[in-house]
């Protein structure tokens, strides 16, 4: 017969089971990006001006596009009132809100959380602020709240989102087929994740990329984040 210790070891290593913290109304400020709890009164008009007439932003979302500012701000108010998902506004530091990021599927007891429902205005996309915002969120999740697993999920047809996940340090874990029905369409879901073991080298790559000497006088990067991150690839 196996000893109790052998059986316990077979079940997996012991870990700190202290529950992680829940997201809160923090303000995260970086060199380029600022993140703070979504406030429809403060952010609604600016966000509408940033995303209006860009219907493609909502292609893979379960909601949107919106007909007018009133409808959009009403939706923001509904989102801001929820504790899961927990929504944050993103802005270029010193400027108005031009994006939304959300922490969701929050499981403090399992120390697992997901980032999703990311909506970035075209003017914010592919900017240093957009990348730094992801760095700030990951640091908040791992370093402040104490999560072990940080998930990124997207429609398996969303190639831009899958590329972004890998560029930001998430590892591909596979595809859940027929996972959801969104706006009447079948969705296969691509899963990505970063663990607390992955985070230190990812954080170091971000820090190197964000260093002032990695940008020229015009704010252009010298080394790409993907180069510094390395090929993380699949964990399947």
Features of the shown structure:
single chain, 236 residues, alpha+beta, Aminopeptidase, eight-stranded mixed β-sheet, 7 helices, 8 strands
Write the layout of secondary structure elements.
Blueprint: H1 4-10, E1 27-29, E2 33-37, H2 40-51, H3 69-80, E3 86-92, E4 97-107, E5 112-120, H4 128-144, E6 149-155, H5 159-167, E7 171-182, E8 185-195, H6 199-210, H7 225-229
Parallel strand pairs: 5-6
Antiparallel strand pairs: 1-2, 2-3, 3-4, 4-5, 6-8, 7-8
Question: How would you sum up this structure, described in words?
Answer:
With 236 residues, the protein is α+β, with helices and mostly antiparallel strands. It has a single domain, classed as Gcn5-related N-acetyltransferase (GNAT) (Aminopeptidase, 3-Layer(aba) Sandwich). It has seven helices and eight strands. α2 crosses α3 and α4 runs antiparallel to α6. The longest helix has 17 residues. The radius of gyration is 19 Å and the shape is globular.
In short, what is this structure?
This protein has 236 residues and is of the alpha+beta class. The chain is 31% helix and 28% strand. The chain has helices at 4-10, 40-51, 69-80, 128-144, 159-167, 199-210, 225-229, and strands spanning 27-29, 33-37, 86-92, 97-107, 112-120, 149-155, 171-182, 185-195.
Structural class: alpha+beta
Rg of Cα set: 19 Å
Helical fraction: 25-40%
* CATH top-level class: Alpha Beta
Q: Please give the order of strands in the largest beta sheet.
A: 1-2-3-4-5-6-8-7
